[in-house]
Write a structure and sequence with these properties.
2 domains, alpha/beta, Rossmann fold, five-stranded parallel beta sheet, single chain, elongated, 316 residues
Length: 316
């Protein structure tokens, strides 16, 4: 009997997906809510684990652990923890947020280009003010991080007649992208884009990448959208850039500290739209991640290579 720990608030989609895949026999699923520390006896026999982060003392308490499935695409909280067993493969949920993230990003492109916040404010004040809004067609969207989500956004943005450029660790041609640059092309992307979308992971080379110097390379009328990681942006530099008109504004869905503190200047800076980290949320999110989890469960049972294994050296 193989023991798999489900350290999750919503374990049923994972159990049901395993049963549909014919993996119910010979597998014992142990459910522990995330607010509780898994018991020693469960961790001692667990061969697989699903969770948001490593439980306290995981490295010492789980000697039989052979693989971990994270519920998130970004795994910096795992990699930074001393509780993560260094020899155990960590699989992220890369690609499982592709649909909902793409839709949220497209929604925000329309929100800022059509000044939807201004229209909503006018309604609250019963003020009739017509606007002549620019179109997205013909504008340039720059995407820093052309991974699974970035490629999906690029495809749909291109269908809206936007010109898409961006960066990728390995700069190979991509559908819907006019030009793919390597990391050394970031400044070029910033200078040519009307909208800049951040989808980079949090690594030693990307943290604080959007500082005053980089923000100054953007067009004065450009908008920054961060749906990647909160620490990609230097908060004070972004607030200053928007207040001074260095850039037109920003849409933020991720932050260095979450929930965003009530006294943070992002809340009160005109031109900055604060979203409460909703980009990856979806009513069927766990069912989507469950498909990846079950595939990795099957692979672990048959000795096949796991999917979406995190490279600690890269940080993703």
């Amino acid at each position: 009997m193989r023991t798999i720990l489900l350290w999750s608030e919503e374990p049923q989609p994972y159990i049901e997906a395993a049963k549909r895949a014919g993996l119910g026999d010979g597998v014992e699923f142990v459910i522990v809510p995330p607010r509780e520390n898994p018991p020693d006896e469960v961790l001692a026999r667990a061969e697989g684990m699903l969770g948001w982060r490593p439980p306290a003392g995981l490295a010492e308490r789980a000697p039989n652990l052979k693989w971990i499935q994270s519920l998130t695409g970004g795994c910096e909280q795992w990699l930074a923890s001393p509780d993560l067993p260094k020899h155990v493969p960590l699989c992220c949920a890369r690609g499982t947020h592709r649909v909902q993230m793409t839709e949220h990003i497209l929604a925000m492109l329309f929100v800022v280009s059509k000044d939807v916040p201004g229209i909503v404010r006018d309604q609250g004040e019963r003020r009739w003010r017509r606007r002549v809004n620019p179109v997205l067609a013909g504008t340039t969207l720059g995407i820093l991080g052309l991974g699974a989500i970035g490629s999906s956004v690029a495809e749909k943005a291109a269908a809206l007649d936007m010109r898409v450029i961006g960066t990728k660790r390995s700069p190979i041609p991509m559908d819907g992208v006019a030009k793919v640059y390597g990391p050394d092309g970031i400044d070029t992307v910033l200078s040519e884009s009307d909208h800049v979308l951040l989808l980079l992971p949090s690594t030693s080379s990307t943290r604080g990448i959007m500082d005053a110097k980089r923000l100054a390379r953007m067009k004065p009328g450009a908008v920054l959208l961060n749906f990647g990681r909160g620490d990609l942006v230097v908060d004070a530099d972004l607030v200053e850039a928007v207040r001074r008109g260095t850039i037109a504004g920003a849409v933020l869905d991720v932050y260095r500290t979450e929930p965003l503190p009530a006294d943070h200047p992002f809340w009160t800076t005109d031109g900055i739209l604060v979203l409460p980290h909703v980009g990856g949320l979806h009513p069927g999110r766990d069912a989507i991640v469950a498909e990846l989890f079950v595939d990795n469960l099957r692979r672990s049972l048959t000795g096949e290579p796991l999917r979406e294994v995190v490279d600690p050296a890269r940080g993703y």
